[in-house]
Amino acid sequence: MRVNRSSELEWSGVQTFMKAPVCLTPEDLRAGNVDVAVGGVPWDGTASGLSGTRLGPRAIRQGDYISGSRHITHLGVRVNPLDHLVLADYGDAEVLIGDVEGTYENVRAFVAEILAGGAIPIILGGDHGVTWPAATAVADAYGHGKVGIVHFDAHADTAPDMQGSLYGHGTPMRRLIESGAVPGRNFVQVGLRGYWPEPPVLEWMESHELRTHFMAEIHLDGFGAVLERAVDEALDSADHLYISLDVDVADPAYAPGTGTPEPGGLTSAEVLWAIRRLAAEVGMVGMDVVEVSPPYDVGPDITALLARRAVMEALTGTAMRRIGLTEPDYLDPRSTGPGESRTYRTPEGP
């Protein structure tokens, strides 16, 4: 009898994230003792122009050269997250074409279901507008004012509106702050650059005590030093951490497949390192990865691959935290080379 192993290939069969089993209800999640559930929001109804981010969740799930086996040990820290975490795919939130409010209500309920099932939600976008309902659902569960956000982005996303609409991929952080779900002081922003926002929006951010780390600071002090500040701020700002990753925080050389690219950003290595450290050292109760636009991607879907790896780094960091590997910038000594320290080195220095 021929053995069919095609289901072990990421690009074959049902496209769940990392070939994780599908769960459809909170009861499924609890029955499976699921620790982390990945869900999609295929939505680009509030993005500028024709972004194509509705295709992001499928592209992130679709896979790469890694097979669907459980052998995914992170070579830097020598941890296989699937040895310590139960992962499931929760499918996609229902989006309503032309109905922003209804879609956002569905996203909020979708994330609430994952939380009700006892799992950490990792949401695949979709444009950045979905952070408003997703993070609100997390704040609903843990308490308004109790959740902090580390927000990786080229843009602040704190506009008062987008051409008169309160809904948009440039407004979600403002909506979260104004609603009281996440206070301004609980926001740590990393990677802002370019020519927006304008002074009145920057003044609003300062008046609401957002802790913002611009690329100018990163260029001056090095990403290692700035990330240490962001980790410290995340620890003192709230009881629980939500991570929001807009892939355009990375330079377009590393993430061209996005609707609003901005030159001069982080490298992919820096993004992945930062996500893992936050998940391990601070711990997270939710995450989103947004603004992946497959129509704008090049090569072997390099932007979707970066987004996928960011989720895997979050899983690895979460597993590290579970088994007690929470020391600053942990690396396994077997991976750092003879005579080397266990400290990651960025191009700017340690």
Descriptive report:
Mn(2+) binds at residues 128, 153, 155, 157, 246, 248. Belongs to the arginase family. Agmatinase subfamily. GO terms for molecular function: agmatinase activity; metal ion binding. With 350 residues, this protein is α/β, with parallel strands linked by helices. It has one domain (9-335): 3-Layer(aba) Sandwich (Arginase, Chain A). 33% of the residues lie in helices and 13% in strands. It has 10 helices and 8 strands. The protein has helices at 26-31, 56-62, 100-116, 131-142, 172-179, 199-207, 215-221, 223-237, 268-282, 302-322, and strands spanning 36-41, 87-92, 120-125, 147-152, 187-192, 211-214, 240-246, 286-290. It has an 8-stranded parallel β-sheet with strand order 2-1-3-8-7-4-5-6, with helices on both faces. Helix 3 (100-116) packs parallel to helix 4 (131-142), helix 4 (131-142) packs parallel to helix 5 (172-179) and helix 7 packs across helix 8 (223-237). The longest helix has 21 residues, at 302-322. It is globular, with a radius of gyration of 19 Å. It starts with 25 loop residues before the first helix and ends in a 28-residue tail after the last helix.
